[in-house]
Amino acid sequence: MRMHKMIVVVVGLVLAGASARGAITGVVNVDMQRTAAPATTLYSGQGAYSDPGNNYWNPYNATLLDTPITNLWTSTQLEQTTVDFAFTPLLGDTRFMGGNNGTPTGPYANLLANYALTFGTMDAVISGLIAGNAYDLYLYSTANGQHQGARFTIGGDTRDVEGGPGVVGTPTSFIAYPTDDSNYTLYSGVVADGFGSITFNMTNYQAAAALNGFQIVGTFLPEPSTAMLLGLGGLLLRRRRRYS
User: Fold this and answer.
1) Which of 3, 6, 31, 137 could form a disulfide with 213 if both were Cys (CB 3.0 to 4.6 A apart)?
2) Residue 55 falls in which region: left (phi positive, over 0), alpha (psi -120 to 50) or beta
């Protein structure tokens, strides 16, 4: 009975106090990955945000853009979080496509080669964040046509990421907005709303709007079952030491 009560207490403390005691500081990476033919390879490596030695990117490999991915991992692939990601198509033809600029080449080919594409407009929602916390958000955009990037908007801040020159082969470097032929933009200090979410809109810039992937940097909550296991493990270890 005492052990049962102890477990209940630990579970409650973990769920109520994870933001204070179990927070994870790092980066969550997501790569748009095509699994249908012609399939693309999940990117592994560094983005515009440098995180040396930690190269994991979560795959968004759904064939339909209304399928969310949940409990994303940090770049270390050792820490699972409560972060989720989903698209909400709003208007126009929304597709999931792959194959950028002919045959992909270069060190970032597997990141910049495949993309979610819309000829209209859609929202993308990153949820499961800590409400009121600020995050840095890197959005990547380049497709297979000249300046076929995306018009991104967060909280009234609209930016046209041009998407590169559209030549055969992907860029050999990350080019930041507002530079000509930019292929990514950084939104700094974006605050998660009261629900723990950040929403960004992507809209047809010239011919279409593409999203290759994103990085979000900040503090995250551990996925609940992982946090509970860690809490229980610590409690049982202390109990064992106490009575040994």
Assistant:
1) 31
2) alpha
CA distance 98 to 95: 10
> CB count, 10 Å around CB of 99?
16
pLDDT in tens, 141-196: 987 655 567 899 999 999 999 876 554 445 678 889 998 788 899 999 999 999 99
Question: Could you tell me the two tokens for 232?
Answer: 């229980």
- 38 upstream amide cis, omega within 30 of 0: yes
Please say whether the beta carbons of 98 and 38 come within 8 A: yes
Alpha carbon distance 244, 234 (integer Å) = 15
All domains in the chain, ordered by first residue: 1-22+222-244 (no CATH), 23-221 (2.60.120.430)
In the structure encoding, which two tokens stand for residue 96, read together? Answer: 């999931």
Whole-number Å distance between alpha carbons of 78 and 144: 34
Three-state secondary-structure class, residue 236: helix
Q: What is the pTM of this model?
A: 0.83
Choose among 24, 8, 4: nearest CA to 16: 8
